[in-house]
UniProtKB/TrEMBL annotation, chain A:
Species classification: Bacteria, Pseudomonadati, Pseudomonadota, Alphaproteobacteria, Rhodobacterales
Keywords, in A-Z order: ATP-binding, Hydrolase, Nucleotide-binding, Transport
Name of protein: Spermidine/putrescine import ATP-binding protein PotA
InterPro entries assigned: AAA+_ATPase (IPR003593), ABC_SmlMolc_Importer (IPR050093), ABC_transporter-like_ATP-bd (IPR003439), ABC_transporter-like_CS (IPR017871), Mo/tungstate-bd_C_term_dom (IPR008995), P-loop_NTPase (IPR027417), Transp-assoc_OB_typ2 (IPR013611)
One GO CC term on file: ATP-binding cassette (ABC) transporter complex
GO MF assignments: ATP binding; ATP hydrolysis activity; transmembrane transporter activity
Entry's EC annotation: 3.6.3.31
Record-annotated ABC transporter domain positions: 4-234
Gene3D superfamilies referenced in this protein's UniProt entry, alphabetically: 2.40.50.100, P-loop containing nucleotide triphosphate hydrolases
UniProtKB/TrEMBL annotation, chain B:
Family listed: Belongs to the binding-protein-dependent transport system permease family.
SUPFAM superfamilies hit by this protein: MetI-like
Transmembrane segment boundaries: 24-50, 83-104, 116-143, 149-172, 193-215, 248-269
Subcellular location: Cell inner membrane; Cell membrane
Name used for this protein in its record: Maltose transport system permease protein MalG
Topology class, membrane: Multi-pass membrane protein
Organism: Pseudooceanicola marinus
Gene that encodes it: malG
Entry superkingdom: Bacteria
TrEMBL record, chain C:
Membrane topology: Multi-pass membrane protein
Alphabetical GO biological process terms: transmembrane transport
Family named by the database record: Belongs to the binding-protein-dependent transport system permease family. CysTW subfamily.
Phylogenetic placement of the source organism: Bacteria, Pseudomonadati, Pseudomonadota, Alphaproteobacteria, Rhodobacterales
CDD domains: TM_PBP2
Alphabetical list of Gene3D superfamilies matching this protein: MetI-like
PANTHER family: INNER MEMBRANE ABC TRANSPORTER PERMEASE PROTEIN YDCU-RELATED (PTHR42929:SF1), INNER MEMBRANE ABC TRANSPORTER PERMEASE PROTEIN YDCU-RELATED-RELATED (PTHR42929)
Localization (cell): Cell membrane
Domain of life the protein comes from: Bacteria
Entry's Gene Ontology cellular component terms: plasma membrane
Main location: membrane
Keyword entries, A-Z: Cell membrane, Membrane, Transmembrane, Transmembrane helix, Transport
Protein name as it appears in the record: Spermidine/putrescine transport system permease protein PotB
Membrane-crossing segments per the record: 26-45, 80-105, 112-136, 168-190, 220-242, 267-286
Amino acid sequence: MAQLTLKNLGKSFDGTDVIADLSLDVADGELVCLLGPSGSGKSTVLRMVGGFETPERGAILIDGEDVTEVPPEKRPTGMVFQSHALWSHMTVADNVAFGLKLRRLPKAEIRRKVTEALDLVGLGDFGNRRVWQLSGGQQQRVAIARALVLEPKILLLDEPFASLDQHLRERLREELRDIQRRLGITTLFVTHGQDEALALADRIVVLRGGEIEQAASPDRMYRAPETRFVAGFIGSMNFLACDMRGGRADHPLFPVAAVVPDGPVELAIRPEALTVSPGRSAGMSARVHRKTDYGTHLLLDIVLEDGARVKAMCPPSGAFEAGQEVRLTASQVALFRDEVKLAEVRTEAREVAHV
Amino acid sequence: MTIAETSLATANPVASRKTRRPDWIGGLLAVLLGIVVVVPLIVVAIWAFAEVWRYPSLLPQEWGLRFWTATLSRPDVWTAMSLSIRLSLVVTALSALICLPAAYAFARMDFPAKNVLFLSFLASHAFPKFGLLVAIAGIFLNLGLISTFWGVVLIQLVGTLMMMIWIPVAAFQNVDRAMEEAARDAGAGPIRVFWSVSLPQAAPTIFAAVLLSFVGTFYETEGAWLIGAPEIRTMPVLMITYINNQIVVQYGAVLSVLLWIPSFVALMFTRRLVGSSSFAKGFGV
Amino acid sequence: MTDLSSTGPVRTGGTARRNGRGLTGLLLVSVPVALLGWLIIYPIFNAIGRTILRTDGTGPGFSLDTYVRFFSDGYSLANLWLTLWVTAVCAALLLAICLPLSLYLRFAKSRVAAVVQGLSLFPMFVPSVILAYALIRTIGPNGGVDLVLNALGLPKINSPYLTPWGPIIGLVWDNIPLTTLMLVAGLGAVSDNAVEAARDAGARPWAVLRHIILPQIGNAVLVVLSFTVLSIFSAFTLPYVLGPASPEMMGPFMQRTFGQVMDTRMAVTQAVITFAICAVFGAFYVRSIARNRKNGR
């Protein structure tokens, strides 16, 4: 269907750069999630693609055609807003039909397309309802139908499920994914929820301060974060500061070996990469501070002798109590220095052999 | 079923205790206000249907509609009525025509000196109104606008400006910007967005503002009296001459009841707007 | 594809378009602004100009003769004093009536509160002409109140009709809705939680009013006072119909000078004097609006 290219986009508000220099290619039929904390510029990027903001530098191309200067009403994009932005003075069907009427389509065709679009989001019988008679989830479905009925080349979604409760959000997320797959529509999705991005995206683009921090598949993003920011932003991560000396970290618990220049580093370890067993560690004592039972797993909050805290995940069968002394081993450790990843070490084999 | 019953039973005493506690202060205020506000109007209503009411009888000696026919057969009443209606219609239409686009601009567009200009509309309350009218009358005298229809139109138009700017501005500002953007996204140009989304969304509030302006113009006495006299005699001006000349008490009463009808309609439709805090905010609180 | 490097030309389209929109905006507001300028701002300066500049005889010259005449004329001064007195009494009465009323409306949650609100808004929908007529019939000589008193065997009231108390009653009646509304809006700044926290700390209702509520609505009260003064000081209809013929309030006085005495210059002089007296309140009012708008944004 369509390809979206952002080339060296730049935008500032009141003299401060919101987007410095951003380039991104979205392939035909791909669903890309723009993920970032508030103020990272993710919505600005989306609004520039939709035509609601004009970039000061760079260009936006859809299927190779420069649309940077094209006003929103002439762009082949369809947008779903966070506040659903349905027109409350029209019926559901009129909302969906509005854009078609502007295009002066024959009445019968409008009716057919509206029915199709509403069927697509599972609201086939709701055409005559007023907007306020719908639930929040239904309203957002109508907004999706309204954006899709015009058959845009690019679908844009600006935190569309942010105002819904967790349960509904997860369901709509799956429905949206199904619809997007079925239509094969190129989609840009803005969210600040990492779980949403991980669940939806073909590719996640993490933004920070208006720049792309990392763009990768959900799987790579979680397992191989390339910067300290991404490592900390996606999922939970333990960071332990220490020094590298002669190719070995001087942390008493995790003396990992890596070919890294000497100097301060941070060891990054996922909670699930830690194995906890009763007993005493060699270099440094570690005690369970608190145990939280999540049903599927236990989350242990562990205090190290030097005051550092780490979180560790272990099977629900694990018998640990607060105050108990434990031994920690890590199966995978990443090393960061000044935001940049230096090395990734898998220690599984060594530890298994050790035990 | 049983669960529902038990929960109702437990919820009941709490709820009833709350509603049963009498609101003495409220009751007292309601009675006092009721007497002060309603009694004068009841007296007028009784006079309108009294044919003979001599002191010291508590109620009229004879009731009837004789004075309604008498009042309504007076040609000056009909002239004043049609003049007042024409005047109010012209003023309200002109006011809507020039103020609604301006209100939209104030609410949604960016232009130089916007804040100062908007503030100057709100600040137009900061001048004693009748003094201002006299100053304007001094200018109109030189322009030959005194005692003309269009002179009164102008003076009353100024009176509606403030309400017709700031209520619609608030209404337009309350329209979700994303709604307008969604319309742009669907292919509507800026004018189409205004017509199909912004205006209908703001319509209930704007309608109330238009109604208030119409009624306000209909009852406007001071400008009409000062600028319009002696040629332009609107209903309120006629009413004042009736009061002054004390011809027949019932004429005034019948006119009062008649004149109050538009106000009653306005009361029905605009009470929600007037009671809202955003309305009071326009006066600077 | 064209090469677009980040150091390429900065797009000026955005700002140019904004300028274009700026002109459209100015164009849209131009008619009301022009009207405002012509019929509110200009008349004020014109009034000052025409009363201090002499155009008769030997070309323009500076003269304060009408002002001298006003301030040396006992009747004019009596009118001015009457107006000031009526305004002060009305403002005091309005605060005394509307402050309790608005406190009640702000904090009451019963169904009676809706009735009280409706009743206190009601006078806004009674035009002042009708009000004037109704008051004459009710508290005028042999009016409704006299009828009731007589039926109860009590003496008649000393009718306020055609005394300064006539316009006072009328003006207070007429201004109750707006004053109450503005005070209620001002009381919106006091959060329920602030009051509940104070009561929780052991404050009795009177202490809550004195230490929590009043300090927070001081500014609102001042705005309401200025607004009331501005609208009452130059009231016309009610003083004209209900008030005494001599001395009279400034509104009817100006009207008579303009319409019957046909002394435009003197009438405008009187208007300028009312502007001057109200200027303090007007300035305070404008400042408060400006500050509220800045805070609102």
